[in-house]
Amino acid sequence: MITSFLIKSLDRTIVIAVATLLALAILVPALNLLTAPDHPLHVPTYLVSLFGKYLTYALLALALDLVWGFCGILSLGHAAFFALGGYAMGMYLMRQIGARGSYGNPLLPDFMVFLNWKELPWFWYGFDMFWFAALMVVLVPGLIAFVFGWFAFRSRVNGVYLSIITQAMTYALLLAFFRNDMGFGGNNGLTDFKDILGFNIQADGTRAALFAASALALAVFLVITSGIVRSKFGKVLVALRDAESRTRFLGYRVEHMKLFAFTVSAMMAGIAGALYVPQVGIINPGEFEPGNSIEVVIWTAVGGRGTLIGPIIGAILVNGGKSIFTAAFPEFWLFALGGLFVLVTLFLPKGVVGTAQQHVSRRRAYREARGDKDAGLPAAEPMAAE
Amino acid sequence: MYRILQTVLVALFLFTAVPSGLRAEEALRDLVNALGEAKLSDMDEHIAALAKTGDPKVVAILEALGEGNLYARKADGQVFLTKESGSSLSLTDPVSGEAAGEAPKAALSKVKVNNGVRRAVRTALGSLTLLSPDRNARLKAAQSVLQSPNAEALGAIENALAGEKDGEVRTLLEQARATTLLISERPVEEKREAVRTLKERGGRGALSILSSALGSADETLKPDIEAALASIEQDQALWAAAQNVWYGLSLGSVLLLAAIGLAITFGVMGIINMAHGEMVMLGAYTTFLVQEVLRSSFPGLFDWSLAIALPLAFLVTGAVGLAMERGVIRFLYGRPLETLLATWGISLILQQSVRTIFGPTNREVGNPSWMSGAFELGGLTITWNRLWIILFALAVFAALMFLLRKTPMGLQMRAVTQNRRMASSMGIRTPWVDALTFALGSGIAGMAGVALSQIDNVSPNLGQGYIIDSFMVVVFGGVGNLWGTLVGAFSLGILNKFLEPYAGAVLGKILVLVLIILFIQKRPRGLFALKGRAVEA
Question: Which of A240, B48, B432, B488 sits CB 3.0–4.6 Å from A247 for a disulfide?
């Protein structure tokens, strides 16, 4: 069953994308570690970290695409799941600092010593073990998404209302994590990490490995999501996206399916966050900003929602543009980003990849005349919710 | 004849008044100089003697004594009021009030003070000013005696009470007497009377006096005190609740102002306008610009600045809204999620434009004189700006209601939202109605910005803080229903303020958000849902 799931998931674009990611996962670390700094093909470490960061963003955008592109749930709170995963990883990294913090307390992280806390809060127990932290990276966002989705989908909150309450959710989390007494470092967040799994987090080798891990994770989840959307279940997801009531009347448990997609997507976002934190070296409540979640939506929209590889391309394009823009004309980045939002929704509603696919399939349809075979992805034409 | 009489009268006056004045001054000087030589143990008597003169100058002398600023000159035993000036002291004659040069510290000896003396000084001062001919001074003295009651001053208070005519000072004095009575050695009956007076007075002060008196009180008096305490506490709780309601109304009016424009664009038209907060911000910046122009060119008109800014802000943000609708939003009707993204993009552009033009820092917007200050209403403190904002929010609401219900434009708007195609076939130009409705919603947001500039920081991020709250209000109240927005805003405001004392400001806000999220699960269409068949809505 699993093999058929995997075989179904692999169409040409996905194979190419996965192969590219795997090649990158080997090539970039190799070029970084094995070549001399003055070698023309050398990849400097900062670039490795930067692109590693983009890959985690791409995974986040992929997670959003699963719910938005295939299920019609526009979540404006996906960065919250990303940040929760990041916090779980950050807590592990904080515990790894041990007695090397500036207060030298072997048990308590610096900010707790600073706040005069005497013992570790219960929710920090277990985070000194990697397997536990890794479990939490998936479980915490998954659980919150499950509970949230359980309530929301069961009472048939959908469309814009759902978007707004997901935004309220991330806003509430933002406010909560800003509080010092929450025990997550208040507005400074968690930072000053030293080790991950015993390796120095600043070392070139660790950074290269994190890059490879990000590329690998992205490849794995690309295959998984592709499998999901290509399965029978995925077809029903698309159906409920396009005509929810009709799907419900046909006898499908619409809210269960949405809940499943939403929870899986939140877990993916959590993993992306966990890979993000060691590469940037900090996690703070700013990650919960509602604006961040909306930015994820624009990456997905630019790349093309409902296309799986579109969000990956979109995330890398937009963030690459952001890095270049903020360095060259910091004043104009927000103009560019704002303009992107407007222009993409007006003129490129299917995104870069979606438009290209449409173009290709139209030409193929033209060539093969009528009654042709499967052309590209199924229905990259999400109907509006209203 | 007249002139002669006048001269005689003046002469007579001089003959009698001056010598007696001079004599009094001499006596006072003797008393003051005696302070310099007095032992600490005799100090009380000297102070009492000074106080007995009833001379207003004694107040300054006693105050100086209490603060340790009274020095005696070693050479001749003269006592002076002093003030530190560098290494030496500048002297002032205590009786004439004239400056008497400077002297090095070595040439002077300080009049000794200890806590006993200070207490005597305070008591004397209290009773002295209680008898002062100046009403305001008496009022102040009565207040200070009331705030720091002292059993020794009881006599002075009763003395003053006997001669007091002014009503306000009298009530204060009566309360002060009751307060001091409780800590004195008077019989129980009098104390019971005092408890009753305190109970009527209420307030935190009475509460602390009574509860401290409770411990040392007579067994027969205890039930009375306990009853009084309970009644005062109940009063206090009521006032605290009232104050919370007031804060809640105030917050609710802010929410209402921020949300009311959204209730039009989102509620009536169904457009998710994420740039709504930026419309509020533009309104606030319009106020800033108006005030700048008035400050530099017509400073006399400053009090009118808000009245001038209101229509301007309406026009500016209305025009921006019109441009948005015609330029972007009209291509996205029927695609609410895309509208959300596009308007978010517009909000980023507007924010950055304002940041580029006006800078990222807060801009100063002044309060006109009629909006600053506060007044007391029972146990409530009400600030004028909050009161005006509540009134303004209600006025905007009423005007909008009128516009929607009673004018042809409102009729067309309602027709288009209810049945677009039917309205269109009746000859209503629906695209224009859409554009005008959106402009109206935006313009109202701009007017809200004028009001909010009075209580919030005017910065490019101003709008960001309101956008989520506004959506919450509209969704909570029920989309498409202005009354729902009104009720939603005020109930959320009050709920927030009632949660704050228990949960803290931030946690309270989080709780409210969680409650709204849960509420939407229960009633996905808000408090006042529009009825209708909406399966695939």
Answer: A240
